[in-house]
Amino acid sequence: xxxxxxxxxxNFEHLTEFDPSxxxxxxxxGFTGSSxxxxxxxxxxxxxxxxxxxDLAGHGKSSSPSSENYYRAESLINQIAQVIIHLRLxxxxxxxxxxxxxxxxxxxxxxxxxVKGLILESASPGIxxxxxxxxxxxxxxxxxxxIENNSLExxxxxxxxxxxxxxxxxFSNDKLKRIKEERAKNSKIGLANSLRGFGTGVMPYIxxxxxxxxxxxxxxxxxxxxxxTQINQNFKRVFPSAKHKIISTAGHNTHLEExxxxxxxxxxxxxxx
Length: 273
What we know:
Shape: globular
Radius of gyration: 17 Å
Strand content: 15-25%
Strand order of the largest sheet: 1-2-4-3-5-6-7-8
């Protein structure tokens, strides 16, 4: 479903039949993804909840504007808010993967009274150390330039060839091909601007703001993803209401690599609502 916001089009999908009497989970994809990334798992997530997927600016069926302002944290917060307003929801549970998790964190910090639960998969509150943040910003700019100067097919192959996604190589060649084809369906402008507007290097560090929040939260990481497991162990120290679940046999994308275990973790968390 397309809604208009600030001269752009935002697409959100009812991933299951919508019942206004039920609580709603809003799913937010990672970089290069879309709301379609969640379709294979939502049917097995607790049926007491509606499931909605949003395509953030620059991804899926949403617009890919040329201005970087649409990709910054403030705009992403407003994009999430538009769905909540459109559906006339008084509260929401957010489930975000990687970039979508970072967007969920920012929305929650800005609207703590609206968010009743957080499911954060391989997410990060940002980079606190300025030197490390600048190094990541430089890396994201190099990726953005690669996108602009090469085909999206070449970028998808290069992006997924990073060590972070090494555990995806366990999949068959056909499945890997389908994953790369999905990633290549996005827009060059959208992906490049997403990195420049909301890459981890430019995203404001938000860990300090989370110390005050008491929202039930589960942090999910893959045990084979040492980097983000460590990030989330540190994350938990500044986010006292969060519990950390490690799926030992998964890498960065736990819901893709170990869907059954991801669903079990999520359903266990949702049982409190």
